[in-house]
């Protein structure tokens, strides 16, 4: 019969219409912005810079090595290295970025900067409501806008942040043990040198940094 | 140019239909009426040249067809590409191998994971990397999920092109969303996944992902059955698609058409079967073939292929082993493959997607070439459309399954 197929099809439409009131599987939309779906653990949008503690400058993990700047496919990162150094999380003096800009209108959220960063300093944010009336300066994020605390990172990517924290803690412990061993070895060597003889005059033992 | 067809030489590349608009307002696209001088053999009357596109809802992007019409019949059709050209290949020659990976997402933005795989496959051939077992399974799973959502959307768009405004497309998008949710929890992004790496995958499956995927795959046949009942016997769909846009078997082979379009014309050629790349030799699946090569066959092939994909997915989700996801030799920074060349190809949802690379030992490829299925499948558009009415051109183009991001690159 002509039209049978259409009637059959309309039966499916009716089933979907009625079903959308009872089955969650058939009505998958939510009323944004009043209702929001939880963000996923792996979700990524634009990069931010992680700092430890409360001071964004003192705790900044970035050492301005500029690897992310080189690897970034659309070249949206601009970094200027500082002249002076500040201690990093293990206490070793390191450079820090004097300027760290990301143009999020150019960024394509590919996460390659995160993958290549050896210092766990740059991570992906999940913030997506970034609309702005100024499309040039408003979307060029500087160091202060990009810096976000480790607590924030733990909140948006809990499992990933826990793994990173574990890795950094292990590194710190290793570095501390190494410094301690170094100090002890140097003290021993100095004591031995002082014991053996006077000439030639012994080099002054280097002052341990920590 | 033969008399009586059309005065302008469309093939010369200078289209009289829409010249470059000038600031003074001249040069705007106009409809040109051309008087036919020789009525012998043809129909009487004038030919009308119409530029369909680049801003046309049926062209799936910025794509233009210069159509010459005799009444409502198409006498000549010339596809015009390049509106979405982004210099993909040259950019890739200037960035590192890893740096082009996110750009491949943007080729066929419906199927970023299969694009990733094709590129990763080419680089792995070049550098001699071998992804571990688990990574291969993850690749198969994500690629087949990609195929599912691509074909689902394609059918929705095809029906949209036919004038079924909304309903089939919305049902398709509803199901696609469930797959995109899986992609987001795995890769972090719904469409621009950027997930595969040379020698494996970027990250392991998050906890609970497999169960969620099993659930989606388990529920999918119900949707396919519904879709089938909803559309496959619909008289309007039959009238609009059967016998429309026939692509003969010989032409499909000669023109290098690949993918569902070629199989709809009856050519048994599926790279998953021919090349057995990855671990496709471990899965049992059939290759559906068409008989007539018309639009209905191309529609049906996609429905049947989705069912085969579901079989592959069920096996893969059951058998996936534990283990590492990256080749131990692979490295992220300082990747410099030895000089040489490689061609990696896979059966992407739209056809054969290939990446050809030449390395000179540097950090970036010396030559990078994409073989896009969308572009090559479009080359037979005129042959399929001749003699049909304008409304059918829209349907035929919809059944070719193009994404202009890939055709223009």
Draw up the topology in text.
The complex is a heterodimer of chains A (210) and B (409).
Chain A: H1 4-22, E1 47-51, H2 67-71, E2 77-81, E3 86-87, E4 93-94, E5 97-103, H3 112-116, E6 122-124, E7 140-141, H4 143-146, E8 147-149, H5 150-156, H6 158-196
Parallel strand pairs in A: 1-8
Antiparallel strand pairs in A: 1-6, 2-5, 3-4, 5-7
Chain B: E1 32-35, E2 46-52, E3 64-70, E4 73-80, H1 88-94, H2 101-105, H3 112-127, H4 133-162, H5 167-187, E5 196-197, E6 200-201, H6 209-232, H7 235-241, H8 249-254, H9 260-264, H10 271-274, H11 295-319, E7 340-348, E8 351-359, E9 367-371, H12 373-378, H13 381-385, H14 390-400, H15 404-408
Antiparallel strand pairs in B: 1-2, 2-3, 3-4, 5-6, 7-8, 8-9
Helix pairs in contact in B: 3-4, 4-5, 4-11, 4-14, 5-6, 6-11
Helical region count of chain A? Answer: 6
Structural class of chain B: alpha+beta
Order of helices and strands of chain A: HEHEEEEHEEHEHH
Q: What is the distance, rounded to the nearest whole angstrom, between the alpha carbons of the first and last residues of chain B?
A: 32 Å
Instruction: Name the CATH class of the domain at 47-165 in chain A.
Output: Alpha Beta
Largest sheet of chain B: 4 strands, antiparallel
Give the mean pLDDT of chain A: 83
SSE pattern of chain B: EEEEHHHHHEEHHHHHHEEEHHHH
User: Which oligomerization state do the chains in this entry correspond to?
Assistant: heterodimer
Low-confidence blocks of residues of chain B? 1-21, 35-42
Radius of gyration of chain A: 28 Å
Task: Give the strand tally of chain B.
Answer: 9
Rg from Cα of chain B: 23 Å
The CATH architecture of the domain at 47-165 in chain A is: 2-Layer Sandwich
């Amino acid at each position: 019969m002509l039209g049978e197929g259409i009637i059959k099809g309309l039966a499916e439409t009716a089933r979907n219409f009625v079903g959308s009131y009872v089955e969650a599987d058939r009505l998958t939309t939510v009323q944004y912005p009043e209702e929001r779906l939880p963000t996923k653990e792996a979700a990524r949008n634009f990069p931010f810079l992680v700092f430890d503690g409360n001071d964004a400058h003192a705790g900044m993990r970035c050492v301005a090595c500029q690897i992310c700047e080189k690897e970034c496919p659309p070249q949206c990162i601009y970094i200027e290295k500082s002249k002076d150094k500040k201690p990093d999380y293990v206490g070793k003096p390191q450079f820090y970025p004097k300027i760290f800009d990301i143009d999020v209108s150019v960024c394509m959220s590919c996460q390659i900067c995160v993958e290549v960063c050896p210092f766990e300093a740059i991570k992906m944010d999940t913030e997506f409501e970034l609309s702005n009336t100024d499309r040039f300066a408003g979307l060029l994020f500087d160091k202060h806008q990009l810096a976000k605390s480790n607590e924030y990172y733990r909140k948006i990517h809990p499992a990933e942040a826990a793994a990173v924290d574990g890795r950094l803690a292990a590194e710190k412990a290793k570095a501390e043990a190494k410094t301690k061993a170094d100090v002890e070895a140097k003290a021993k060597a100095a004591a031995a040198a002082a014991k053996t003889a006077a000439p030639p005059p012994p080099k002054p033992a280097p002052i341990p940094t920590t | 140019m033969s008399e009586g067809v059309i005065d302008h030489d469309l093939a010369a590349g200078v289209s009289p239909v829409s010249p470059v608009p000038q600031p003074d307002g001249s040069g705007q696209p106009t409809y040109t009426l051309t008087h036919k001088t020789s009525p012998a053999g043809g129909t009487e009357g004038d030919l009308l040249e119409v530029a369909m596109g680049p801003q046309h809802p049926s062209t799936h992007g910025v794509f233009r067809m210069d159509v010459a019409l005799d009444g409502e019949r198409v006498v000549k059709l010339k596809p015009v590409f390049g509106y979405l050209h982004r210099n993909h290949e040259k950019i890739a020659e200037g960035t590192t191998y890893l740096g082009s990976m996110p750009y491949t997402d943007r080729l066929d933005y419906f199927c970023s994971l299969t694009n990733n795989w094709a590129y990763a496959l080419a680089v792995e051939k070049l550098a001699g990397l071998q992804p571990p077992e688990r990574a291969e399974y993850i690749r198969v799973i994500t690629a087949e999920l990609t195929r599912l959502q691509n074909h689902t959307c394609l059918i929705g768009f095809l029906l949209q092109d036919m004038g079924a405004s909304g309903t089939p497309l919305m049902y398709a998008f509803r199901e696609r969303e469930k797959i995109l949710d899986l992609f987001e929890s795995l890769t972090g992004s719904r469409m621009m996944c950027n997930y595969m790496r040379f020698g494996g995958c970027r990250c392991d499956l998050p906890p609970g992902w497999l169960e969620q995927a099993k659930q989606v795959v388990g529920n999918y046949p119900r949707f396919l059955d519904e879709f089938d009942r909803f559309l496959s016997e619909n008289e309007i769909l039959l009238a609009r698609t059967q016998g429309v846009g026939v692509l003969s078997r010989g032409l499909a082979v000669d023109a290098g058409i690949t993918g569902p379009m070629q199989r709809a014309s009856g050519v048994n050629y599926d790279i998953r079967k021919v090349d057995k790349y990855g671990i496709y030799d471990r899965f049992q699946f059939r290759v559906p073939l068409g008989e007539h090569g018309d639009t209905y066959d191309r529609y049906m092939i996609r429905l049947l292929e989705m069912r085969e994909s579901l079989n592959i997915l069920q096996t893969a989700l059951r058998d996936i082993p534990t283990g590492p996801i990256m080749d131990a030799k692979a490295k992220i920074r300082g990747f410099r493959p030895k000089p040489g060349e490689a061609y990696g190809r896979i059966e992407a949802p739209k056809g054969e997607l290939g990446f050809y690379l030449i390395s000179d030992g540097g950090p970036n490829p010396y030559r990078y070439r994409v073989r896009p299925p969308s572009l090559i499948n479009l080359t037979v558009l005129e042959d399929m459309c001749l003699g049909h009415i304008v409304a059918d051109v829209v349907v035929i183009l919809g059944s070719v399954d193009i994404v202009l991001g890939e055709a223009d690159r």
